[in-house]
Design goal:
single chain, about 220 residues, mainly alpha, Heme Oxygenase, Chain A, 11 helices, about 80% helix, globular, binds 5-(aminomethyl)-2-methylpyrimidin-4-amine, EC 3.5.99.2, Thiaminase_II, Aminopyrimidine aminohydrolase
């Protein structure tokens, strides 16, 4: 049977669930998250996005065909044009200047996750790299959808984190996510079960590193 992206999620169901429904996400949704935890997360996420933009740059470099090139470019665009632009403006609203962002040290969770993805991409092929990148884009798109499906999620002006949810539920972000899933589904349909097992390991590692990233924000650890 051909593999699909859904099979990667099912191969680490518990980890995926712990990532999507992490306490950080739930507290953000009901507005109980400490502002200092959110600010710490925002700062580290800026550093994270810079490294992930580099990883999409690596995917551009590793793309053998025009359609692969276009897909990698979409990922790079989603980070640089959608997320980073909004992120910098959003950080300003939370009292964090662009100059402060540029001089921040990376927390260990940021280092571990971003360097894992870059290393996986350097050592492996384009599919390894896209699989390592996928919990990032697909996970946040799924988190926005999940949050909107819950009665406990506060939307609008009564939630200071509402703009964060809005960014990931935007049509632009959701379209980029669907396009990444389609690209992965086409590639996964042809892999053997041994190759799928290798890819599942990468997907599960990246998902566990996403959980650590939320935890780093929640505990404000460096
Ligand atoms: C840690 C992390 N993971 C995912 C995303 C969504 N691109 C993000 N901004 N930050």
């Amino acid at each position: 049977m051909p593999y699909q992206f859904e099979d990667l999620k099912n191969s680490c169901h518990a980890e995926w669930h712990a990532y999507i429904q992490h306490s950080f996400v739930q507290q953000l949704a009901d507005a109980s998250l400490a502002p200092e935890a959110f600010q710490h997360y925002l700062k580290q996420d800026y550093l994270f996005l810079i490294q992930f933009a580099r990883a999409y740059g690596l995917a551009v470099y590793k793309s053998p065909t025009l359609s692969d090139l276009k897909q990698a470019k979409e990922g790079l665009k989603a980070i640089v044009d959608i997320e980073l632009d909004l992120h910098i403006r959003y950080c300003e609203e939370w009292g964090i200047s662009e100059q402060e962002l540029a001089n921040l040290p990376e927390a260990r969770a940021t280092l571990a996750y971003t360097r894992y993805v870059l290393d996986t991409g350097n050592r492996g092929d384009l599919l390894d790299l896209h699989v390592a990148l996928s919990p990032c884009m697909v996970g946040y798109g799924e988190i926005a959808t999940w949050l909107n499906s819950r009665a406990e999620t506060l939307r609008g002006g009564s939630n200071p984190y509402d703009a964060w949810i809005a960014m990931y539920e935007s049509a632009e972000f959701q379209d980029a996510m669907q396009s990444e899933i389609r690209w992965l589904n086409e590639r996964l349909a042809d892999v053997s079960s041994a190759r799928f097992d290798q890819l599942s390991r990468i997907f599960s590692d990246a998902t566990r590193l996403e959980i650590d990233f939320w935890q780093m924000g929640l505990t404000q650890s460096d």
